[in-house]
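From the pipeline queue, job 12 of 40. The input is one protein chain; the requested action is below.

Action: predict structure.
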Amino acid sequence: MKGVKSIWTLAAVVFTMALVSCERTEPFEPSEDRKVFILYSCGYNNLSNNLSEDISLLCESAPSRALSSLYKVLVFSHTTASFGNYTTPTHPVLIDVYKDQFGLVVMDTVKVYPDNMVGASAQAVERVLSDVKMLYPAKEYGMVMSSHATGWLPERYYNEGGGSGGAMYAAAQSAMMMCPPLVKSMCAQFSSSHGSVWSEHEMEITDFASSIPMHLKYLVLDMCLMGGIECAYEFRDIVDYLAVSPTEVLVDGLEYENMLNRLLYSREADVRGVCEDYYNYYADKGSSATISLIDCRQLQKLASVCAGLFDRYRDGIANVSQNSVQRYWRENKHWFYDLRDILEKSGVSASDLASLDSALASCVLYNVATDKFLEIQIRTHCGLSMFLPKMDGNARLRSFYKGLAWNKATSLVK
């Protein structure tokens, strides 16, 4: 189970990686049957130890070397040199993971990137995924990304916009990683000076989506607050299935032990199974979790329905009471509410609500939540969160929101 992995197992994996480090420059032969799984682990922050453990858990079910030509497991990893050390640069690496003839995990370094490369940037995502696409031609690509996140918000806004602490920091009160840097819009790369720690590098949802150079069968975001329609809609043309959490994600994150069985070795990627594993892990121990599986190919129907509803019920949306709507935020970070509940509380007619439910049913394939997420009561959960414009009149935020693809399609904020 997560959280009880031996540190010696992790050390052994890292040691093996250090032994096998020849950089690959020539692509493999194309294969019509190859499936590529990518873990983009952005851990140059206070999640470094946790993300390293996730990699170790994932590697336990790596394919044999013979099978790895068809079932390719690739890990991009950027971690700190030591716990809490954000001043010593480290090299980000792209690793090919498989097991040798003795069943031991081998982490073959495919690429070593410059130590000044910022893993938490759209430029890095595009460079790494372009290398993957060039070196490993495949019929199917899928990716899991793990790091900090604050949904669709513009860079640095999460802390500048009010409240204290941040997504995973507040949720990880029992972990040995408490420190007070800024939380960012997507991913995080920390710096420190004179004892202070902060998030220096950030990536916004629009930049992330535009940096992906291939179509993804699935994208699983092991990150906080990414279950917003604003995020999902950015991926509508490049991702089939999206797994996200409308709330924060506790520090243990996803279940990595069974992930390759779900996503890589099954005939069809079982993204729902990944969501179920995640939910069951937390629910079984009486903890907190929300998770949604979105079919991004069906989001246009939801956008069309919502565009009409936003236009007809604009006054109702403007008058919705914040306290009456299902929230997914804590600590005064009031930018994430249940999409359906907003519209229901806006006074939509029964027929319009039925149209909304039909559109949601076509794109939200699975959604589940524990009764509470930490101190938040979860009384309703449609699977997608949304901005409630009346809750923030900040000109910067509204201007940023107007640039999101979701707002361009629906005119929620004018």
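Job complete. The CA atoms of residues 302 and 359 lie 5 Å apart.
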